[in-house]
Every structure is written in structure tokens, then in C-alpha cells.
């Protein structure tokens, strides 16, 4: 039994009991429990979560991707700047990028206005931020390997003369 085998199962079926994982991998439940505990302690497994489609809950929800260009400060670099940004509660995810922009933030809000206020009042007012580009997610088709639509097959429109 390899760690990768356990991780593959947990990435698609995070709620699967250790006994079921052990059976699939032809191992024992204590061995799987021990491996999972070790992977959690080593921060290979960072946590478990449900993948939610907020539109199906009927709630107002806006997901945005914000590209951020920053000016690294002497003796601090990107890590300190990223930490400053990802501490905002609106920021759900933060990545360091190569290319034109330095950081990519995934920001959730109740409305386009709330995300816009975050960008204009909190993010772009920081001295280290040189520029931002905000993209609003229009529709979610797939997230973390899970389809967000009931019918995944694309339908073609009828051609009319």
C-alpha cells in the first residue's frame, strides 16, 4: 500500500471510512489509519471539505479571480506580501504566479459590489499593490474533479435556415 493510493481515494471520496480504503487496497484498517494520521501530521493532507455548488442553494454568491501585481519590499519578498493578502477573510485561495501578475487571489463575495469594494477599499489601497485585474466567474462547470451540472453532455443548438 502506497501513500499515493490512499491520497487518490481520499481526493475523490474524502468521507470513505478507513476500513473501506483498506479493503480496496488489500491492506488493514490500522495500517490505513496510521498512514492517514502520518500524512495529516506531515501536512500532505491539509484538510477535508465538501465541494458545494452555491447556486443550487439559492444563495447570492460571486466567485472572482483577482490577478495582483505587487512590489516586493526589501528583506521580505513575496511570502510576506502573500501572507498580508491571504489574511483578508474574503480571500479563499492565494497563489504565487509566473508571468505578468505576481499573485492570484480567489475571492468569494455575496455580490459583485462586495467583491468590488474589497478590491477598491482594501486590496488596491495597500502600498505594495501596483495593479489588479478582476475576473468574475460566470458559470461553474467543474470543480476539483466534480461536475457542477446535472447533465454533463453539451447540447448543440438546432440550426435554422
Calculate the mean pLDDT score and round it: 87
- Overall strand count: 6
SS-based class: alpha+beta
By oligomeric state, this entry counts as: single chain
What number of structural domains do the residues give? 2
Query: What is the annotated CATH architecture of the largest domain?
Result: 2-Layer Sandwich
**For the CA atoms, what is the radius of gyration?**
21 Å
Helical amount among residues, as a percent range? 25-40%
Q: Give the CATH level 1 class of the largest domain.
A: Alpha Beta
What's the order of the H and E elements? HHHEHEEHEEE
Strand order of the largest sheet: 2-3-1-4
Strand content: 15-25%
User: Major sheet, described briefly?
Assistant: 4 strands, antiparallel
CATH topology of the largest domain: Alpha-Beta Plaits
Distance between the termini: 60 Å
The backbone outline, from C-alpha atoms, is: extended
Describe the structure.
The protein is α+β, with helices and mostly antiparallel strands and 161 residues long. It has 2 domains: 3-41; 55-139, 2-Layer Sandwich (Alpha-Beta Plaits), CATH 3.30.70.920. The protein has 5 helices and 6 strands. It has helices spanning 3-12, 18-24, 29-41, 77-86, 112-123; strands at 62-70, 91-96, 103-109, 129-136, 142-143, 146-147. Strands 2-3-1-4 form a 4-stranded antiparallel sheet. A two-stranded antiparallel ribbon has the order 5-6. Helix 2 (18-24) crosses helix 3 (29-41). The protein starts with a helix and ends in a 14-residue tail after the last strand.
Amino acid at each position: 500500500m502506497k501513500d499515493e493510493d490512499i491520497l487518490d481515494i481520499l481526493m475523490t471520496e474524502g468521507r470513505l471510512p478507513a476500513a473501506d480504503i483498506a479493503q480496496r487496497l488489500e491492506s488493514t484498517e490500522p495500517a490505513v489509519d496510521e498512514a492517514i494520521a502520518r500524512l495529516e501530521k506531515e501536512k500532505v493532507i491539509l484538510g477535508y471539505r465538501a465541494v458545494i455548488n452555491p447556486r443550487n442553494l439559492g444563495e447570492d454568491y460571486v466567485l472572482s479571480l483577482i490577478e495582483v501585481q505587487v512590489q516586493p519590499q526589501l528583506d521580505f519578498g513575496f511570502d510576506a506580501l502573500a501572507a498580508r493578502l491571504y489574511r483578508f477573510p474574503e480571500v479563499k485561495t492565494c497563489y504565487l504566479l509566473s508571468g505578468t501578475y505576481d499573485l492570484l487571489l480567489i475571492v468569494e463575495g455575496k455580490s459583485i459590489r462586495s467583491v468590488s469594494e474589497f478590491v477598491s477599499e482594501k486590496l488596491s489601497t495597500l502600498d505594495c499593490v501596483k495593479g489588479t485585474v478582476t475576473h468574475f466567474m460566470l458559470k461553474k462547470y467543474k470543480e476539483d474533479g466534480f461536475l457542477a451540472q446535472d447533465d454533463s453532455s453539451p447540447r448543440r443548438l438546432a440550426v435554422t435556415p
